[in-house]
Amino acid sequence: MRGGGLWQLGQSITRRLAQVDKKVVGRRYFASEAELKKTVLYDFHVANGGKMVPFAGWSMPIQYKDSIMESTVNCRENGSIFDVSHMCGFSLKGKDCIPFLEKLVIADVAALAPGTGTLTVFTNEKGGAIDDSVITKVQNDHMYIVVNAGCRDKDLAHIEEHMKAFKAKGGDVSWHIHDERSLLALQGPLSASVLQHLTKDDLSKLYFGEFRITDINGALCFITRTGYTGEDGFEISVPSENAVDLAKAILEKSEGKIRLTGLGARDSLRLEAGLCLYGNDMEQHITPVEAGLSWAIGKRRKAEGGFLGAEVILKQLAEGPKIRLVGFTSTGPPPRSHSEIQDEKGTNIGEITSGGFSPCLKKNIAMGYVKSGSHKVGTKAKILVRGKAYDGVVTKKPFVPTKYYKPS
User: Fold this and answer.
1) CB 58 within 8 Å of CB 108
2) Is the peptide bond before 398 cis (omega within 30 degrees of 0)?
3) Inter-residue contact 225 to 236 (CB < 8 Å)
4) Residue 77 is assigned to a ligand binding site
5) Which of 129, 202, 317, 344 is the most exposed place for a label (fewest CB within 10 A)?
6) Residue-range domains of the chain with CATH
7) pTM of the predicted structure, to 2 decimals
8) pLDDT tens readout for residues 280-324
9) InterPro entries per the record (predicted)?
């Protein structure tokens, strides 16, 4: 998910809504509303108190009636439902879809069993990250992929360019962009028990990273046991005409414990889980190795390469990267994106990419890039916030333990 400062933005809007007439706020923040795309749940969000903001070309809820702090904690204690329909899902099909995809991503796609998926990275010729993505092997001739909203245009243009060249050489691959579907993310400890009321499929046999096409609440859905919060949960691709009914059914079956939740809490949840935010923690000049995603490079891919930028990435694997993404806890005001990181002598060693106050841990947490050698857990640092240095220490990620549903 792309975009920075969502937590801060949500807090800013909350303060303004408390101080200013809502019509004035509407004119100020929603002046370009007509130009923004809307998901099929837009009216549902507004009816339920969603505070809508521009995000990656869409009008999306930053929060609802509860605070970002409250909704973050509720997700970890009970559950949340997020509208993530602004993200782009598409299918690659054809007998050559796997070798085609392996030219563009770092994952060992061929090794995935049907019905399983993984996080991966689309790379450029220099080894930089074009986008991070979850890819799923539906069958050997069908891959299902979800990319970030803010990267949709560049991702699709990149894939299409390489697809044309691949097909020109006789490769069998085609695609379909699922603009007819919406995407809901159901996250939190109650997600499985609530969703089980709406499907005959036994969800206890669906583990983290696994995928099914099944009936949920009377609609044929793509369901992946994954998410962006560190909690157990599901991403559900549902026909758009059934999306509102599905959201209502989930809320009803949870008896009010699962709440509609906006992008502000989604950002704080992913930061607590130590997950990268494209556009903040990953960019086109950052490699997967530098971003701490070496684990996502398949063993065979490390040996053979064959993806864009492989020469750069494999060299970093062998020699070590010059910079590394690490976690921090700190004193003082919460660090923000672009806050300078110094060593104890005051020498610049890096920059914060994401930071904020953790609603669940009740302390500052952040991620940022530092020079190799300054990346070890326990290393002390100074973090500059508004020109003043505060104590920080390199901290192991995730900050909040993950609760993914895996075989025992």
Assistant:
1) no
2) yes
3) no
4) no
5) 202
6) 6-86+180-272 (3.30.1360.120), 322-395 (2.40.30.110)
7) 0.92
8) 999 999 999 999 999 999 999 999 999 999 999 999 999 999 999
9) GcvT (IPR006223), GcvT/YgfZ/DmdA (IPR028896), GcvT/YgfZ_C (IPR029043), GcvT_C (IPR013977), GCVT_N (IPR006222), TrmE/GcvT-like (IPR027266)
